[in-house]
Amino acid sequence: MKLSLIIPCHNNESTVLKTIKSIYSSNNINKYKFEIIVVDDFSLDDSYNLIKRNFPTVKIHRLKKHSGAAKARNVGIKRSKGSLLLFIDADAWFNKATIHNLIKQLDKNTDIVFPKINYENGHLLYPVFEDEKNYPRISACFLIKKKSLKKLDEYFDEFYQTYLEDYDFFMRCNLAGLNAKYIENACVIHANKEQKDYSERYYLEIRNLIYGRLKLGPRKPFTFTNLVKAFILGIFNFAWFNWYGYDRRNTFNKKVRLVLERNNKISKNGFQNLVLFLRAINKVIIDYKVISKKKKSFRKFYQA
Question: N or C, which end of the chain has less CB nearby within 10 Å?
């Protein structure tokens, strides 16, 4: 049994070395034949050179242009030689027992296992709610049997680039009948996310919400209700997708107060977000022929 650890990396010079170090310092890691594959998504910082200097045995492939996390993971899959694929983002790292605990829980009836993910400050990132323990939705870290991927129509859908591509991936895994298991005693730490400008992310979140709705139908989170919510929160300039900025377990009234306080901002103002919203709609219109083909392919494969 060989293990391939796949790390998509884009401008993660401050954390990616910690990610790799956490692999080498994991309990029982030498028990497994493993390879580490970093796919550098055309980083503009020193990520690529830092990895080459500090970890010369790590296999690193650099994309010729910034293409998004979906493509980076797909390249990692295609270059992997392991029967088990363990994905972790370049701004997260393993606790010492995590890798071993994930692998030993992957029985013959399970295709995917996924860990608890906490931020550095101890704030729980995922899973927060009970239904999130039933099946993964985010791709910060998970382990999957490589042969199980053959049941999918494609790996990660590269049209998304980044954001919501993981929801799409795991939704298709579920439709294909892949079994998943949450491993509570396996823990991954995610770097804290300090406030920054989320303009480009807001644009991609809106574009991908619309794309996912057109391709997959009204499946959560790709619903008209969520699109309306994203529009309203954009006007109020609240970054709902920045889970580090608030506790998702808050009551509705508490969330309303947080929105009105406008501390967890998307950009400078709501008008800018309105422009981004319209830009996303325009992009979907431009790409509608491609989206229509993706929709037909998805529905034919899954008989949806």
Answer: N
